[in-house]
Amino acid sequence: MKLTWFKKGTIYQIYPRSFNDSNNDGIGDLRGIIEKLDYIQSLHVDIIWLSPIFSSPNDDNGYDISDYCAIMPEFGSMDDFDELLKGIHDRGMKLILDLVANHCSDEHKWFEEARKSKDNPFRDYFHWHKPAKDGGPPNNWMSFFGGSAWELDENTGEYYLHLFTKKQPDLNWENPKVREEIYDAMRFWLNKGVDGFRMDVIPLISKPIGYPNAPNVGFRKIIEQVYANGPTVHKYLKEMTEKVISKYDAFSLAEGVGINEDNAGLYVNTDRKELDMLYHFDILECTIVNGKFEEVSPFDLVQMKRIFKKWRDAIHNSGWIANAMGNHDFARMVSRFGNDKEFHVESAKMLITMLSTQNGTLNIYQGDEIGMTNISLETINEVKDVQSLNFYNENLENQKFSKEVALEMINKEGRDNARTPVQWNDEINGGFSIKEPWLRVNPNSDKINVQYQDKDENSILNFYRNLLKIRKQYDVFVFGDFEEIEFDNQNLYIYKKSLAKKSIIVALNFTELNQEISSLTMTEEYKVLVNNYNDIATKEDKVILKPYQGLILDVG
Ligand code: TEU
Ligand code: CA
Predict the structure, then answer these.
(1) Ligand 1 pocket, residue 372 CB under 6 Å
(2) Whether residue 291 has pLDDT greater than 90
(3) How many whole angstroms from its chain centre is CA 256?
(4) 195, 200, 224, 340: the active-site residue
(5) Is residue 275 a contact partner of residue 241, using CB atoms and an 8 Å limit?
(6) Of the given ranges (281-295, 442-456, 463-477), which has the lowest mean pLDDT?
(7) Residue 501 falls within a domain, yes or no?
């Protein structure tokens, strides 16, 4: 039987470039992670997900791979990797790597060959198409990072498809050789002992036949309807699992881009033997209407409850999901969903209280355990993320927004927010590196850092540690049946979870004001498991939650 240890586990995502720089060249590296393994273990996390560590020209920071079986020299050597893996396993944790299999780098030898001529043996590793009648791209598809998804290759006079940057050509999964190449790369790492993969944009690997034009329905819908969930995706995922993953004690976590609650089961229902779990975008994008840097909607708590509910209903133990409120692609969780100023500590703690009691595997992102916040970059020269830069440059041409507004939007939504170096202490560059880092450290590292929080028993860091430890002891956090209380309440999120004879009540205040909970009377039998304040106020026995207060009560 397939092991399910990952269900109760907590995944800790590391973005290696920004984690810790061991040799002071301004870039995080594998030895930097090795130095911090005891720290990571102290969080009580179970699985480490490493963003890509493979050779790459870094057009998209490693999500453009030029050699799937080599370590990026900036990050270290294969010996470093082996030592890292051993260090993780010695501490009872698991490691999953980031498999970027929808596309590779244009500097990968496959693409360098493919673009040489139309009859090159590697030509069919990619999607090529002759120009439209007017010489333009073959269809109206847009790249995730702006502009056409097709790039003309002057040498052979044909366009190639790139759903991301033009340095990330999409691989042609219809070609069995491509699939075998990817499977071989997976085996290479699994044979070394890695415990699985996070699968980058995996729903995109199969393209609709004939490359039809996309309808005019907004980018998110286009992803769902056109780019993702193509005709052969499930055939290939089954094949991948059968031929590779199932031969090891390993699991797969899909980046569920373009997946919705109706088709999610096709990817992760256990009996289908495809993928083990996915994280969807509905929470991560709940304030993003069609796409980044377009219309934004205000945060709406009831909508968020609805999203969690619809996913619970859709997946109810037939399959599995992971829950995340942040990663390397989104602005910081506390800045988006909490209050990173007056209630920084309270709201960071409340949010993790909520996330850790949702059904599913908990997925946290480096730095969130100390409540790292968004950064405000002062000039466009400080911006490093290719998605933000493409948006800025496109905007220079079409002048939709002024330069100032464009930079403001980048500071609000851009991916660099999540990628600033981890703040280890109050020293230069937050202790990340002595040399100027590749991306500026957040100036609040003099206040928000691991060193201070480690010593402070009331810190966000120690709250995470305690919560994650308790979560391991209470199956009801993860598997309990969920009962909503005051579902339509816009200020409070309250729910009861029950499993066998154990029940908990979770009560969370999403506002900056005191909130009375009319439906919750404190009794002496209730045991307080988690509280981000020192006490619980009551009025005539009714609980009054303080700003961003979050509680977990063991109610028997
Ligand atoms: O992300 C896929 C993806 O959908 C993102 O482009 C996301 O929509 C965007 O960042 C949110 O604004 C994955 C990786 O996580 C991302 O870092 C890569 O850039 C991308 O794939 C291409 O590999
Ligand atoms: Ca380094």
Answers:
(1) no
(2) no
(3) 10
(4) 200
(5) yes
(6) 281-295
(7) yes
Mind giving me the DSSP string for 326-354? --TTS--HHHHHS-SSTTHHHHHHHHHHH
Q: What's the CA-to-centroid distance between 329 and ligand 1, angstroms?
A: 6
- Pairwise CA distance, residues 325 & 331, whole Å: 10
Query: Does pTM surpass 0.85?
Result: yes
Q: pLDDT band for position 1 (50/70/90)?
A: very low
In a domain, 171, yes or no: no
Give CA–CA dist 165/455, Å, rounded: 44
Do 117 and 224 have their domain in common?
no
The verdict on 340 and 487 lying in the same domain is no
Determine whether 255 is an active site residue: yes
Residues in the 5 Å CB sphere of ion ligand 2? 21, 23, 25, 27, 29
Domain membership flag for residue 167: no
Residues 187 and 305 in one domain: yes
Instruction: Write down the mean pLDDT value for the chain.
Output: 97
Ligand positioned closest to the Cα atom of 25: 2
Let me know whether 20 and 134 are in one domain. Answer: no
- The separation between CA 517 and the C-alpha centre of its own chain, rounded to angstroms, equals 33
Query: Maximum distance among all alpha carbons in the chain?
Result: 81
CA dist 220 and 210 (Å) reads 21
Q: In this structure, are residues 496 and 483 in contact, taking their beta carbons and an 8 Å threshold? A: yes
Query: Where residue 455 sits, what CATH number does that domain have?
Result: 3.20.20.80
Residues 66 and 135 in one domain: no
Domain of 412, in residue numbers: 382-416
Extended beta strands in 132-201, E state? 150-153, 158-161, 196-199
Regarding whether 189 and 119 lie in a shared domain, the answer is no
What is the per-residue pLDDT across 252-262, written as a single tens digit (0 to 9) for each?
Answer: 999 999 999 99
DSSP 225: I
Distance separating alpha carbons of residues 270 and 317, to the nearest angstrom: 9
* Ligand located closest to 163 CA: 1
Per the model's pLDDT, the better-predicted residue between 2 and 349 turns out to be: 349
In this structure, are 367 and 393 located in the same domain? no
Distance separating alpha carbons of residues 391 and 393, to the nearest angstrom? 6
Contacts 24+ apart (CB under 8 A), 51-55: 51/13, 51/14, 51/15, 51/16, 51/17, 51/98, 51/328, 52/97, 52/98, 52/100, 53/16, 53/81, 53/97, 53/98
19 with 99, same domain?
Answer: yes
| Domain at 146, CATH number | 3.90.400.10
- Last residue in a domain, options 373, 399, 416: 416
Residue 3 has pLDDT above 80, yes or no: no
Give the ligand 1 atom nearest the CA of 164. 22
In whole angstroms, give the CA distance from residue 440 to residue 374. Answer: 12
For residue 404, with 0-12 CB atoms within 10 Å meaning exposed, 13-18 middle and 19 or more buried, which class applies? Answer: exposed
Q: State the residue for tokens 């060959």.
A: 113
Total domain count, the chain:
4
Residue 535: give its domain's CATH number.
2.60.40.1180
**252: three-class secondary structure by DSSP:** strand
Give the rounded distance of the alpha carbon of 332 from its chain centre.
Answer: 11
Give domain status of residue 168, yes or no: no
